[in-house]
């Protein structure tokens, strides 16, 4: 290995693994050479009501992109995640819930999970939800959120989970786009000692244009909320006397499982659609191999179920494997910066999976917080969501993993359904900052921006994937053309990830971040277009351009250039107002970090904003602006540089 900083699998990791180096290499080679046979075998890990006879039927050929896996198989995901474990592990904890308030917790066994999910499913049915219907779930991180998801899966309804931090408007757009007639929410959520007015947000969303027939409300904080007769139902009342058994609906492998909205480089968020069979095989297989999950271990992924990481690695992957999955309602800094470590200590967590932004924030808080807790239960620690800088990786390895645990950096996306690039713990040596090597069946391709495939091992460019894998998204809800044009048009015959990357001489992948207009703020994906459209929605704003800039904790920060309507005054008060405005329009995660008043934006003569220049100024790298000769008014740039906001 060429790089100096290489962390080889420990003896313990090798002894514990499902794939040693040679096994990984062998399995990987086979997954590429004989995908049909490989995946037919891997798919046996889940229970099929009717076995498939066809394995792979996929094409990335533009414009006839079509992706089908196990297409004539029949199964039910909830039955796979619950029922099939009952005989062997009915009394084992399926979910350990740790509340926002350190005094609160709950353990849900597989037997209990079965009962809860069945009851939930029967309530949905009683309220007219049928196979194929969409159901929007807008919930705090409480067990009922996973009951709701699994209940939908049980009866064949398609869930659309909307992160509880999104605003009423963002929620309304997502309800409308997939035409959910039922919304599941809670009176309020709890985060960091504060309450989140979830039900009030739903009311607002339904006032602002979205439509729903039924709002099912879970009583969580118990505080008073408004209920609209004829539309809103308390779940606990609706569930009274409801049967605690509900047969699992036989689903075709390609029946939709969920829609999850994510940001793209243009326009409104898109509803990424995942289907049943391939997704579950992918979720279960990656969860087992990437974490080397062993029976009886306690596994904790700190994501929110509102993101894909929560879908695949809190709910579906771990439960399909009969794991104990920990679900945490709170935040890393409440009541203090020791919370994560206390929870690991308290529940004897063996596997911990979090985001680089949390690692950086907790690193900033100081290692004394980590040292207070006994972390000897930990065996593996992972990261996901954004590039992890080597300093954060090394701190994580030293202070959390005590140089004893395996550290994995996993790269994937909402669209990929699960992990695509990650070291397997017993097989692949880690290099801090690299997601290392591809998972079974995944063929990464590095392209020059012009689309030339880089065949040398050492290469740099944009990342695409050559062929389909079972967990891949099938389409964008209601807009297959957008699916095709977003991912398959730029580089014909390949899936384009939107990420830049470097491949080193050992074939390791180093993801460098998005190459499109998608930001990654604390591991949350946001489109610059969404923030711009929120800004220009303000009556005083005439134009806005948003770019990212490096941020120590969040990875990227949100930098907004704003031009006001003629006659408006450029003052600090208005900056605060705009910040609050964007929070209200999209949600707190989209709060602008820096706003720069820009009486003019750098445009070409044809009126196109030169974002490259805006990025450079925001990065405080105005010395290297490159060619500005095509600008309609080069003087604009001087003004931008002079008034730049990101000064060290
Ligand atoms: C980024 C989250 C570097 C990447 C699972 C990707 C990463 C986007 C990593 C997807 C990683 C995710 N290293 N970058 N290990 N993991 N990303 O859809 O830019 O919320 O395209 O899925 O996050 O974000 P999404």
From TrEMBL:
Residues 83-467 form the AMP-dependent synthetase/ligase domain. GO terms for molecular function: acetate-CoA ligase activity. Residues 24-81 form the Acetyl-coenzyme A synthetase N-terminal domain. Its EC number is 6.2.1.1. It comes from the Bacteria. Keywords: Acetylation, ATP-binding, Ligase, Magnesium, Metal-binding, Nucleotide-binding. CDD domains: ACS (cd05966). Pfam families: ACAS_N, AMP-binding, AMP-binding_C. The modification N6-acetyllysine is found at residue 608. The keyword Oxidoreductase does not apply. Acetylated. Deacetylation by the SIR2-homolog deacetylase activates the enzyme. It is an enzyme of class 6 (ligase). CoA binds at residues 191-194, 309, 522, 583. Residues 530-608 form the AMP-binding enzyme C-terminal domain. Coiled coil: none annotated. It catalyses: acetate + ATP + CoA = acetyl-CoA + AMP + diphosphate. ATP binds at residues 385-387, 409-414, 499, 514, 525. Its cofactor is Mg(2+). Mg(2+) binds at residues 536, 538, 541. InterPro entries: Ac_CoA_lig (IPR011904), ACAS_N (IPR032387), AMP-bd_C (IPR025110), AMP-bd_C_sf (IPR045851), AMP-binding_CS (IPR020845), AMP-dep_synth/lig_dom (IPR000873), ANL_N_sf (IPR042099). HAMAP family: Ac_CoA_synth. Catalyzes the conversion of acetate into acetyl-CoA (AcCoA), an essential intermediate at the junction of anabolic and catabolic pathways. AcsA undergoes a two-step reaction. In the first half reaction, AcsA combines acetate with ATP to form acetyl-adenylate (AcAMP) intermediate. In the second half reaction, it can then transfer the acetyl group from AcAMP to the sulfhydryl group of CoA, forming the product AcCoA. Belongs to the ATP-dependent AMP-binding enzyme family. This is Acetyl-coenzyme A synthetase. The gene is acs.
